[in-house]
Amino acid sequence: MGEWDGQMKHLVGIAREDFVSWLVEGAHFDKELSANFATRKRDGDNLWQIEIEEKPSLLHLEFQLKPDENMGRRMWEYNVDAAIKYKLPVESVVIYLKKAGHPKAAPPYQLQLPNGKVIHTFSFTVIDMCKVKTKSLLQRGLKGLLPLVPLTEDGQDHDAIEYVIKELQQPGVKKAEELLSLTYGLAGLVFEQESEHDWLQRRFAMIDDVIEESWTFQEKKQKWLKEAKSQDLLLLIQRYYPALLQLAQDVCNTIQALEELQELFEKVLYAEDEEEVRQLLLSAQK
Q1: What is the DSSP string of 154-203?
Q2: Fewer CB within 10 Å, N- or C-terminus of the chain?
Q3: Residue 40: which pLDDT band, with cuts at 50, 70 and 90?
Q4: Which pTM value belongs to this model?
């Protein structure tokens, strides 16, 4: 899911309580659990312990972009694994973030014998964000869900975006700068027309100071700077030491810290020969 995955991980990370309140009536967030099961080839997105009427349960939440014929079985397998591991009942929800073509697995998921006898019936919830009424989401009063507004039925309307910005700039809103940054990021993923991109950029440019304080923006900024510095290093290697280009690419993929990349660039810049550069790259790769 690329950029979508990063945006949604950030959002649920700061708005778990609001997601739980939205998805499970009367429930409250308790704690996050591991969605990694040894029997699964693919980790689940989110698994949380929640409380319903002061009794523990689980909420399994998946985000999806493309239609998946096997979604019903995937949700059933995660549900069963989680229930067995934690010995608690599990509510399973899949949220489609953008309009997706069919086929799309619809609940309930049933497992049948060859003679047609149903031996398992599994209920899960499917939410198509493009079909969610914008007004209904706004009326819930859950500030952590406001970045989802651009994904809703009428959420790309300028008035809807203006409402979200106004609400998130109210005094006392927790993580307001993060939520504004995420609203901008998600809107940018669904606004398709160039004129809409221009309007979005102009509108959020008015609150750049707030957005730049958010850790989501700072994280993106670090990513951009690292990509730029990686490109600088690769161009330097390609020009003067082309035989080491593949090794340099591997090193750039390995280094996480911008400072380390900057230090390596400076050492390569002042290296005396190819062998010295090779040793610098091998040392950085370790």
Answers
A1: TTTSHHHHHHHHHHHTSTT-TTHHHHHHHHHHHHHHH--SHHHHHHHHHH
A2: C
A3: low
A4: 0.71
